[in-house]
Every structure is written in C-alpha cells, then in structure tokens.
C-alpha cells in the first residue's frame, strides 16, 4: 500500500460515492439519537440526555471506555425503546435509509430477538416487525434512487440459554429475510461449546453461521468458533494477529498453525476498526491489525459494528484507513469485493453484486484501475 498526499485527498473525496458492503452492523447499535428520544418519551423511559446531539455524544463517550462490558451497557437504552412492532419497524426502516445514504448496496443487520419481547411480543412477532421495516426501507431508498439489499442475521445472546430456540427461529425464517445466525454479547466465559448441539443442528440445516470471536477473548475463542461452531465467518477476529509473529527488521511474518488454517481456508474476518479502538481490542487506526491481515492475504472485510456508539459509517471507516493507514482505492475495492463474496446469499447473487454493482461503481471513479 503506497499513497501520496494528492492521492490520499483524491481517494478520500471519492469514498462517499463508492458502493459499500457491510456484514457486521448491529440493528440496536445504529439508531438515530432523535428516534431514541421520541420512542423513549412515548414509553416513559429515562435517558441520560434528551437533545439529539447531546445524547449521541453520551453514547460515544460511554462506549469509549476501553471496556467491552461497559460498551455493551449502552445498549440498555436502545433495546428499551425497541419493544413494539412499530418501534422495531421504524428502527429497521431508518437503518436501511441511513446505510443506503452512505452508499451501502448490501447489508446484513444483526440483532437478538430475545431482547425485544419485554412488552409481550413473541419471537416471531419481532422478526416479522424487523422484516417489515427493512422492506419499507429498501422501497423508500429505491424511491430516492438508491439500491440496497438487506438481510437479517438473527442473534442469540451468549449469556442466555436460548441458543437452540433462537437457531430454530432463524432457520424457520430463512424465507422471511433471515440469512444467517450469530451469537453475541460477553465473549469471555460463554464459548460456542456451551451448547455444541446447536452448531450441528445449523450445519444439518445448511444454515449460514457467523460467530463473534477474537474481540474480548483471544485466538482460542476464534478457533472454537471456526472448528466447533463451523462458522463461515468470524465476527471481529481482530485478535487472530496474536497467532502471527512479526520480524520488523526483516519485514517478515510467521503464521501459527491456526492463523495458517484461517488464511488457507479464506475464512472471512468481519473487522470493525473504530469499534475495536473503543473496546480496547486495538490501539490506533494506523496500527490496527486489519492492515497487516489484509497485506498477508487474509479474507478481510471492513465493517461499522455499531454506528451510534462509534459515531461511524462505512465512509468514515474507509476515510480513516486511507488517511491514517495508507490505504488506496484498490485496498477499499479489495475489502468490498471480499465482503460481497462472503455475503450470506447464493454464489450467483454474489457474482451479480460484484459484476453489476460494485465493480462498475468503482470503475466510475476517475483513474480507478481495478
């Protein structure tokens, strides 16, 4: 990766118009602050701030603690206001519109239905409400001249005991917008081995799986997600870098056995730079493992994780990597194409996404050589 000051500024100027793919974006981590305020007022939920800018700042500052546990506590407020069909649909609809406005052409929205039944909804009710909102958002985006496709990633909470039930919910809705299954929440102490039968069930159902791993916990966590959980992708996976030894004086890298396995099998890593800085999984954008992993030919994808808590977008993530880590337009295309090839849709649909949308979008940028 090499760039000059002029090429950096030209690339940054082009980013907003680039087609983007996001595979790791939490629905309950992407609400508009104004929407939270309106929904909270309707149900009498107290917030730490009642003005949109101030509330948005509170979320970011709370998530900047460097602790994954405290980071996750910010979700108490977003989940509280997502307990009715109308609220779920609104949040889903607005999320699609915000992503589309950022140039996202394909997205997978992950969320945990079990966290949205506090006011009497069934699990199926929540899936239906979110799907209705996603479809409304896609239609509204199309009316604005923006094309986007969005699927649901149904998530089970690691600390709860409903993995099998949620997995069955996901499989039952594969024709209702659900494209995959995930587990999320506190990583330490709640590994995939808690409920090993779940992973065999999903494999038997030929149902795609991504597992949060390698964020708060290390290489062992990623290995269990891959080998026991049979994950097709790894959510985050940033700490895979711990299985690679670098000789800075000679510019070489020695991969451990598991790092070799991940690279040899091109298991996609759903990396989220800004979020990783907040949770302490990385120290800076310039030194974030995403760059070295990409240079070593791992299947790297770029993602937002939680747009509200990180005050981020795909444009923002790309811009930071260009400005602080030396990324080029070609690098941005590579991670976008990798994400498209890693999407939980069929092979022919992935190919069409790249050939008909992503590649032409990049080629429209003056001077793009791909």
Chain-wise SSE layout:
Elements: H1 5-15, E1 20-26, H2 33-43, H3 52-63, H4 68-73, H5 75-80, H6 85-101, E2 104-111, H7 123-143, E3 149-157, H8 163-172, E4 178-184, H9 196-204, E5 210-213, H10 219-227, E6 233-236, E7 244-247, E8 252-255, H11 257-264, E9 269-271, H12 273-279, H13 289-295, E10 300-302, H14 307-310, H15 314-325, H16 329-341, H17 347-363
Parallel strand pairs: 1-2, 2-3, 3-4, 5-6, 6-9, 9-10
Antiparallel strand pairs: 7-8
Helix pairs in contact: 1-15, 6-7, 8-9, 16-17
CATH superfamily: Metal-dependent hydrolases
Q: What is the CATH top level name?
A: Alpha Beta
Give the CA-based shape: globular
Counted up, domains total 1
Percent of sequence in beta strands? 5-15%
Helix content: 40-55%
Low-confidence residue ranges = none
Distance between the termini: 14 Å
Q: What would you report as the Rg, rounded to the nearest angstrom?
A: 20 Å
CATH architecture: Alpha-Beta Barrel
Q: What name does CATH use for the topology? A: TIM Barrel
Strands, count: 10
Keywords: Hydrolase, Metal-binding, Nucleotide metabolism, Zinc
InterPro entries: A_deaminase_dom (IPR001365), Ado/ade_deaminase (IPR006330), Metal_Hydrolase (IPR032466)
Organism: Oerskovia enterophila
Protein name: adenosine deaminase
